[in-house]
Amino acid sequence: MPLPASLQGRLTLPLIASPMFIVSGPELVIAQCKAGVVGSFPALNARPVSVLRDWIQRIKRELAEYKAAHPQAVVAPFAVNMICHRTNDRLEQDIAICVEEQVPVIITSLQAPSDLIHKVHGYGGVVLHDVTNLRHAEKALGEGVDGLILVCAGAGGHAGTLSPFALLSEVRAIFDGPVGLAGAISSGSGILAAQAMGADFAYMGTRFIATQEAGADPAYKQALIDSRADDIVYSSLFTGVHGNYLRSSIANSGLDPDNLPSADKSTMNFGSGGNQAAKAWRDIWGAGQGVGNIRDVPTTAELVARLKREYSDAWDALQQKRFPQ
């Protein structure tokens, strides 16, 4: 079950840092790629749309300069996330820019349109699609995506409810290509566990919010440090799609975290203004159930180095626990 060819030999860990609305920007993505993990950001973070090209060109330029100055370094490619929904009225513009700039990895959410996939494949790019159930996985594979990201129970932001044990085994029964796993992964041992279960890479978001390069409010980063798994609330109220959020941010907004009304997808707003969505993510902070492992705000380089040590230590410990043959 190989990684996409464009990622092979270009990672120091089998890890993609997930795109986070408002939080992920060029500074974080560049730091992640320099550390050897795929950095990503939502196209909608670049506002107005003209800024998207500037961001992509800056990331490409700084990574190329770093690689030239450090030829032995493993520098990972970057990814841009596309929200493929009818309310995203800048989607076609964003696609055109990403195709012109030949973004190496495109991560699609909500839908996996075949025309986008065809355009990305035209320059040799890779399309990964995030899914929360087997039906969505089957539809995306039918459209021709290169790989899947399984967003399971406990993942930060928009997330599903299925156990990774359940969804991953179902997907592997129909697909032997690249698969990533998301859901409360915040340590190097979690990355190894994802591989042991049959995934090719882990998909980690919340842990990167509490880094120095992340564009999150300092109070948000501190709230992550102060929270534990049972401080995460699962609700559809804020965007129309169920997601996981910090209880404290909901309470600070004057709402009762234990008595939230529901909403449906008709309330979603990913338009060029994006005021509703931006306000939701600015005031109501997304987070996964892996927050209990967050105790500091290191640089991205320090965090990835720590994840590598944890991954190696977990592998060594696993070898010691193997049953005798």
Write the layout of secondary structure elements.
Elements: E1 15-17, H1 26-34, E2 39-42, H2 50-69, E3 78-83, H3 91-100, E4 105-109, H4 114-122, E5 126-131, H5 134-143, E6 147-151, E7 157-158, H6 164-172, E8 179-182, H7 188-197, E9 201-204, H8 206-209, H9 218-226, E10 232-235, E11 243-246, H10 247-252, H11 275-283, H12 300-321
Parallel strand pairs: 1-9, 2-3, 3-4, 4-5, 5-6, 6-8, 8-9
Antiparallel strand pairs: 7-11, 10-11
Element order, helices and strands?
EHEHEHEHEHEEHEHEHHEEHHH
Q: What's the rounded overall pLDDT mean? A: 92
| Basic shape | globular
Question: Which class best fits the helix and strand makeup?
Answer: alpha/beta
Biggest sheet record: 8 strands, parallel
Strand order of the largest sheet: 1-9-8-6-5-4-3-2
Uncertain segments are 271-275
Share of residues in helices: 25-40%
- What's the number of helices? 12
What does the radius of gyration come to?
Answer: 19 Å
By DSSP, the count of extended strands is 11
Multimeric status of the protein: single chain
Beta content comes to 5-15%
Report how far apart the termini are.
Answer: 25 Å
Please supply descriptive tags for the structure shown above.
11 strands
Describe the structure.
By secondary structure, this protein is α/β, with parallel strands linked by helices. The protein is 39% helix and 14% strand. The chain has twelve helices and eleven strands. It has helices at 26-34, 50-69, 91-100, 114-122, 134-143, 164-172, 188-197, 206-209, 218-226, 247-252, 275-283, 300-321; strands at residues 15-17, 39-42, 78-83, 105-109, 126-131, 147-151, 157-158, 179-182, 201-204, 232-235, 243-246. The strands form two sheets. Strands 1-9-8-6-5-4-3-2 form an eight-stranded parallel sheet. Strands 7-11-10 form a three-stranded antiparallel sheet. α7 (188-197) packs across α12 (300-321). The longest helix is centred in the C-terminal third of the chain and has 22 residues, at 300-321. The radius of gyration is 19 Å and the shape is globular.
